[in-house]
Amino acid sequence: MKSIFITGGARSGKSRFAEKQALKRGNKIIYIATAQALDEEMAHRISIHKKRRPDNWLTVEEPRYLSKVLDEIGTDEKYNGYDTILIDCMALLVSNWLPLESVEDTKSWDRLRADLLDEIKAMIEKMRAIHKNIIIVSNEVGLGLVPEYPLGRLYRDLLGEVNQIVAAAVDEAVFMVSGLPIKLK
Predict the structure, then answer these.
(1) Catalytic residue among 13, 23, 28, 49
(2) pTM > 0.70
(3) In whole angstroms, how far apart are CA 94 and each of 51, 53, 113, 151, 182?
C-alpha cells in the first residue's frame, strides 16, 4: 500500500492526476470530497468533478473530520474490497475550519490552529492504520503574495503547515505545474 500527496497551484492538474493515479491502483475507489456547495459557482465545480468520476467510485462527503471517515473505512466491513482512497482536497478542508467572518482575536486563532492540527494528526494516524492506497490532494498557496487581510494570512499559514505535515507522512509527494508532475519525494 502506498500514500501519495499531490500539491500545486489552482488549475495545475492536481485532481486529474490524482484520479489517474487512483485508477492505476485499482477499480474500487473511495473518493472523499471536502468541498461544500455554499454557492452556485461551487456547486457547478462540484458537479464537474462528479461527472468525471466513474460510477463504481464511492463518494463520501466530509468537509472537516477526515479522521472519523478514515476510522469508519478502516473498521466497517462495507468498505472491504476498495483498493484506494482519494481525498480531494486539503485546501478546502482547511478553509472549512475557518470562521466565515474575520476574527481579530489571535487567541481564538491559536485554538483553531491547535484543533485543526490535532485533526490532521488524527487523520494521519487513521490513514496509517488502513491497508489501502491513499492519495491526498492539496493546493500550494505559499508561492504568491502575502494576503492583504488577516484571515487570508491565517488560511495561508494553516494550509502551509497542514501541507508540510501531510507531505512528511506520505510515501511519495508530487508537485503539479501546468499539468505536469514533478516528483518531490
Answers:
(1) 49
(2) yes
(3) 25, 23, 10, 12, 24
Q: Are 6 and 21 in contact (CB under 8 A)?
A: yes
DSSP 69-120: HHHHHHH-GGGTT--EEEEE-HHHHHHHHS-SS----HHHHHHHHHHHHHHH
Is the CB of residue 18 less than 8 Å from the CB of residue 57? Answer: no
138-152 pLDDT per residue, tens: 999 988 888 898 888
C-alpha to C-alpha distances, 103 to 93, 99, 100, 112, nearest whole angstrom: 19, 7, 9, 11
Cα 153 → chain centroid = 19
Q: What amino acid occupies position 183?
A: K
**131 has catalytic annotation:** no
